[in-house]
Fold Derlin.
Amino acid sequence: MNRGNPHLVPAGIVAIIGHQPPVTRGLLFASASLMVLCTLEIVSPFTLYLNWQLIIYELQLWRLVTCFFYLGTFSLPYCWNTWVLVHYCSSLEEVAFQRKSAEYLWMLVCGAGMILLLTYLFGSQYFVSGALIDLMTYLWGRRNPTARMQVLFFTIRAPYLPWVLSWISLLMGGNVQDHLLGLVVGHTYFFFEDVYPLMSTSQGFRLFRTPRILKMVLNDPD
């Protein structure tokens, strides 16, 4: 752990966070706050991870949220996930969801809900922040199908981005099930939001339509 000057880490992260769109900024701030608290051993990661027994029987409801925000203590995996958030997830909010912060936030809420449902059904108990990041990178790749990306030392087409990023994360000790959850949920959202509404049988139905009240709160155009 870095105990020599703990203020260096937050200062650098604050500079990065300040240049991001609002929802991504909130994600970065939450993950950075938990990283600092856990790195300095003020908070234990064991109080943050997803544990359905503690949630249901002891009403530790905060775990439903903190399991998405904790990216680890200050380490290579944390820096990698933060880099992905800054480069791809912020781009998704700025371009695909331009002036649609409410839709972007609702996408994350719906995606998080699906991830939680799957973890409950399959009995998984861990941190699912990687799954949420995979959801965002999957959607970014699908909505930029012709883009070509430089990832480390090779160039790939955007739709393959989440698979490559997941592979790199696995090399750094990531969880296979975590990434599969994110990719499955990402494809589910993409299908019902971008594909199915265009089919004649859908009659314009959108499963993940953003609530109007959320648009009003965030001052998004209707």
Q: What stands out?
A: The chain has ten helices and two strands. The first helix runs from residue 8 to 17. The radius of gyration is 18 Å.
